[in-house]
Amino acid sequence: MTAEHIFVCQGRPRLAADVTEGSIFIRGWDGDTVRVEDCTGAEVKQRGSKIILDSSRRCSCKVYLPRNSDVNIDGTNIEIDMAGIRGRGRIDFTGGAVSIENWQGDLEIDCTGGNVRLGQCEGKIGIDSSSGNVEILS
Fold this sequence. Notes:
138 residues; mainly beta; ten-stranded mixed β-sheet; 10 strands; globular
């Protein structure tokens, strides 16, 4: 899938991603739809207000969510670059790196062998990390 896909959600959008290897670029935007662009190696589908990104092989995706959205990501050997979201988030990954900027809301990160970088994040944040670096910037 390489074309742009646009999803209309009734209620608060939720991204649920399960990625074996690859990269996900996520940005909050002022629109009211979810846009998935330049997505290779992953299946993308919608169930109600949930957008599901599923991949058992290497993938790369750009996802644009309305700013008020929730994000749930499970991954292995994954690079996540996320910014501009107000919501609840849970990220569970092994290997790779997560960079989150300008997050507002509750955020839970569980990582093994991965690096976490947070900047300008507000809300209740929990990080459980083993054998990785954690950097928190104000």
